[in-house]
Amino acid sequence: MTKNTFTIGRLFGIPIKVHVSWFLIFILVTWSLAASYFPPRYPGWSPTLYWGVGLATSIAFFLSVLMHELAHSLMAEWNGLPIHDIVLFIFGGVSQLTEEPEAPRTEFTMALVGPLTSFALALFFGVIWFLTRGSNSPIAAFSTYLAYINLSLGAFNLIPGFPLDGGRVLRSILWAMSNNLERATRWATIAGQVIAYMFIFFGAWQILRGRLGDGLWIAFIGWFLDNAAQTSYRQVAIRYMLADHRVREAMTQACYPISPYITLETLVNNYIVSGQRCFPVMRDDRLVGIVSLSRIRNVPRDTWPQVTINAVMVPLEEMPQVRPEDGLWAALEKMTTQQVDQLPVVKDGELVGMLLHENILSFIRQRGVVRE
Questions:
Q1: Residue extents of the structural domains in the chain
Q2: CB neighbours (10 Å) of residue 88?
Q3: Could you give the count of Cα atoms lying within 13 Å of 52 in the half-sphere of its Cβ?
Q4: What is the rounded distance in angstroms from the CA atom of residue 172 to the CA atom of residue 79?
Q5: Residue 37 needs a FRET pair 20 to 30 A away by CA distance; which of 47, 80, 157, 301 works?
Q6: 247-366 belongs to which homologous superfamily?
């Protein structure tokens, strides 16, 4: 989800991002409202008014989705869980937590506050419709649609299938009953997949009845829910598996140190051939930084003979570190929050290895949690 996104701002310190797919649905919703939804209901409007109200309604719809996700995020932060960002995409939005809730009660309140926010918005726009229904048709039309869409958004998210909000409520209840997050997630995921298959079969039935557009969209939603359920369960399974293992089990010790004074050309010609992708930089037998292939790729090729490692390395003081006895899950979380692909492994002030993101993925694959 983090790919093909860009940040449009911050709210309460939380980065708000938009996925490129959001533009597609934004254009489709605006066009549908202006060309198909409003004209038969309000035949006396001008074309400019149709498109103006359609655009305003579409913007307000996505602001409603943002408020739904912001409610999740603020409740999470209130419970001590940091939020990485909020991403708006083709199916609405998602609040990306950097870690799972630590208790069923926290999960329950975090999940429920989103739909409740949507229901509150539906009531708010319903009141606006009631006050303007006989005096201002554009505002009444605007508020009617938003009341309906927020009511639908809240109700849809309460479907008891993981990872929808209703599925997270179900997981919190199962978690409280079993005192086992992994088992609760597995059962909530099964519920989510059953619901996803119902969407897919209903979509196929609609297609057979000749309603191709509606059927494809419903089936696509089912496919998306099935994939989201599997992905969400896999993340929890990985957390449980990695929690029992340490950094020393996955780190690599085949990290040949390099001098900060050699050029990039020397590095590429003499060291890259070994297959090493990340290099500790040592000065006087002391670790001073890290340089990776991604850093080298950002330097113009024709300057490699002149540019030294010292100029492109990440200084040690800017690098998060781990110890050999640290948990692998904690190390993976640190990589995610710090947005790095490698961590130096340090013991008693000395470098003893490197932990790469690909080391963790290989470790996970070997245990069958993630497959290619």
A1: 5-243, 247-366
A2: 24
A3: 7
A4: 15
A5: 157
A6: CBS-domain (3.10.580.10)
